[in-house]
C-alpha cells in the first residue's frame, strides 16, 4: 500500500484544533433524508425507486461557496429498490480521495480501508476530497460538505438512513470523530484509525457507536490522543469505564476490547496494536499491508452488526461477537434471541472456517468435534421470553472468526 503522509506533531496538537460551527444537522429538506431514523428503525430515501443519475466516479458539488469533489462507488448491479448502507471514507493529511478509492499499492482489497471488498456489493461508498488534502473543518465547512453530499446522494440513490457510517485514518480519523460529535443522530457508527481531535468537536454529548484503532508506538499522533477520543464516547454511551489491555512493545500483536455496560445499540470497542502510525498493521511484523491486515475485518464486523435483521418468527436466531482477542486466541459472546414466541430450549450450531478450537465455554453445553460445533442451553437458561435474549460465551485458540450461526428452538 502507499505510504501515508504524516501529520507534524505541532500541527496535530495546535494549529488544527478548531471548533465546528456548521449549520444544523440534516433535515428532510432534500430527497427525504432525515436527521436519522430512531435507533434500529429502517428508513429509506427519495432515491429509492428512481432511475439514478449518479454513477460511480468523481463528482463535484458546491458547498459553503466552494467547489468540492468526491468519488462515489455504487454496488455492481445497483438496484433502486434496495436500501443500501452509506459509508464515507476520509483520507489522511496529504492523501486524496483517489488514494482511499484505489487502495494504493494494495489495490482493491484495501479500497475504502478494505470495506468495499468486504461489503460484497452491499454498500454505497463515498471518498470526499479535503481542502488542501486535509480536514481543517474551518467554521464547520467540512461537516457542511458532508451534509451536502448526503443530500445529493440520497435524493438520487436508495439509502437506508439508519445505516450511515464514517471512517478514516489520521486526519481522516479526526474528521470521522468530528462527525461523531456533531452528527451523532445522522451516522450510526464511526471507526477512527490513529485519530486525534484535529477537525473539532461541535456538540459531542450524544451517543454513537464508536470503534477506535491506534498503535501503541504511534509517534505522529500519540495513542493517548486516541484514548481521549474513545473516552468521550465511553461516557456518552454509558459504558463502564476501564483501562482496556493493550499489547506490550515487541509483541507485534493486537488486542481488541469491547466495553461493557454500554447503552443497548451503542457499543464502544478499542483495538490497540504494537505498531506505529498506520491503519493497516500486520501481526508478527512492523510493516503495514492492506491485503493482510486484520483491521479491515474488525471495522466491517463493527459496522455490519447494525444491519437490519428480519424477525426470526417463532424460532430463534443467534449472533456471535468477538469481545477480546490476543495473539493466538480470542473470546466471543453469542446472543440467542427468541422470535415472536417464547422458546423452552435452544441449540446453536456453526462450523469454524480456519481450524479454531474452543478451550472453555460457559452458559451452554458443547458437543461436536473438529470444525463442527453445537451448543445447547443449560438447564437454567433454556427458557427465553418472546423477543428476549440470553447469552453464552467461550474462549478459543486461533484467529478470531464470526462464522454464520444456525439456531433451533424447542
TrEMBL record:
Residues 1-27 form the signal peptide. Residues 309-410 form the CBM2 domain. Belongs to the faeC family. It is found in: Secreted. It comes from Thermocatellispora tengchongensis. Involved in degradation of plant cell walls. Hydrolyzes the feruloyl-arabinose ester bond in arabinoxylans, and the feruloyl-galactose ester bond in pectin. Active against paranitrophenyl-acetate, methyl ferulate and wheat arabinoxylan. GO terms for biological process: xylan catabolic process. GO terms for cellular component: extracellular region. PANTHER family: FERULOYL ESTERASE C, PTHR38050. Keywords: Carbohydrate metabolism, Hydrolase, Polysaccharide degradation, Secreted, Signal, Xylan degradation. Residues 53-63 have a biased composition (Polar residues). Residues 44-63 are annotated as: Disordered. SMART domains: CBD_II (SM00637). Pfam families: CBM_2. The keyword Zinc does not apply. GO terms for molecular function: feruloyl esterase activity; hydrolase activity, hydrolyzing O-glycosyl compounds; polysaccharide binding. This is Poly(3-hydroxybutyrate) depolymerase.
Amino acid at each position: 500500500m502507499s505510504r501515508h503522509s504524516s501529520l507534524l506533531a505541532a500541527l496535530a496538537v495546535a494549529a488544527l484544533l478548531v471548533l465546528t460551527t456548521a449549520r444544523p444537522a440534516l433535515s428532510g429538506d432534500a430527497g427525504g433524508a432525515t436527521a436519522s431514523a430512531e435507533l434500529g428503525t429502517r428508513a429509506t430515501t427519495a432515491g429509492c425507486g428512481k432511475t439514478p443519475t449518479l454513477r460511480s466516479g468523481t463528482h463535484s458539488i458546491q458547498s459553503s461557496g466552494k467547489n468540492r469533489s468526491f468519488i462515489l462507488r455504487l454496488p455492481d448491479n445497483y438496484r433502486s429498490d434496495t436500501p443500501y448502507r452509506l459509508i464515507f471514507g476520509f483520507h489522511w493529511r496529504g492523501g486524496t480521495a483517489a488514494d482511499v478509492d484505489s487502495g494504493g499499492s494494495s489495490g482493491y482489497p484495501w479500497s475504502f480501508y478494505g470495506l468495499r471488498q468486504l461489503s460484497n456489493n452491499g454498500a454505497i461508498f463515498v471518498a470526499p476530497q479535503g481542502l488542501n488534502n486535509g480536514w481543517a473543518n474551518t467554521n464547520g465547512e467540512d461537516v457542511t460538505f458532508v451534509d451536502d453530499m448526503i443530500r445529493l446522494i440520497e435524493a438520487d440513490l436508495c439509502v437506508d438512513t439508519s445505516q450511515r457510517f464514517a471512517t478514516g485514518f489520521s486526519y481522516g480519523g479526526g474528521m470521522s470523530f468530528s462527525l461523531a460529535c456533531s452528527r451523532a443522530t445522522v451516522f450510526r457508527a464511526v471507526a477512527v484509525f490513529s485519530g486525534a481531535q484535529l477537525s473539532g468537536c461541535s456538540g459531542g454529548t450524544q451517543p454513537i457507536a464508536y470503534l477506535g484503532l491506534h498503535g501503541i508506538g504511534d509517534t505522529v499522533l500519540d495513542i493517548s490522543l486516541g484514548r481521549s477520543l474513545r473516552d468521550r464516547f465511553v461516557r456518552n454511551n454509558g459504558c463502564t469505564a476501564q483501562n482496556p489491555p493493550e499489547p506490550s512493545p515487541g509483541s507485534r500483536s493486537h488486542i481488541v476490547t469491547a466495553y461493557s455496560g454500554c447503552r443497548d445499540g451503542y457499543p464502544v470497542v478499542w483495538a490497540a496494536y504494537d505498531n506505529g502510525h498506520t491503519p493497516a498493521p500486520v501481526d508478527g511484523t512492523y510493516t503495514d499491508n492492506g491485503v493482510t491486515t486484520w483491521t479491515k475485518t474488525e471495522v466491517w464486523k463493527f459496522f455490519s452488526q447494525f444491519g437490519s435483521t428480519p424477525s426470526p418468527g417463532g424460532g430463534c436466531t443467534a449472533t456471535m461477537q468477538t469481545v477480546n482477542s490476543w495473539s493466538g486466541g480470542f473470546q466471543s459472546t453469542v446472543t440467542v434471541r427468541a422470535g415472536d414466541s417464547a422458546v423452552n430450549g435452544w441449540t446453536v450450531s456453526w462450523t469454524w472456517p480456519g481450524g479454531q478450537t474452543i478451550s472453555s465455554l460457559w452458559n451452554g453445553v458443547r458437543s461436536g468435534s473438529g470444525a463442527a460445533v453445537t451448543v445447547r442451553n443449560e438447564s437454567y437458561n433454556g427458557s427465553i421470553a418472546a423477543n428476549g435474549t440470553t447469552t453464552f460465551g467461550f474462549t478459543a485458540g486461533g484467529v478470531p472468526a464470526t462464522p454464520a450461526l444456525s439456531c433451533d428452538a424447542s
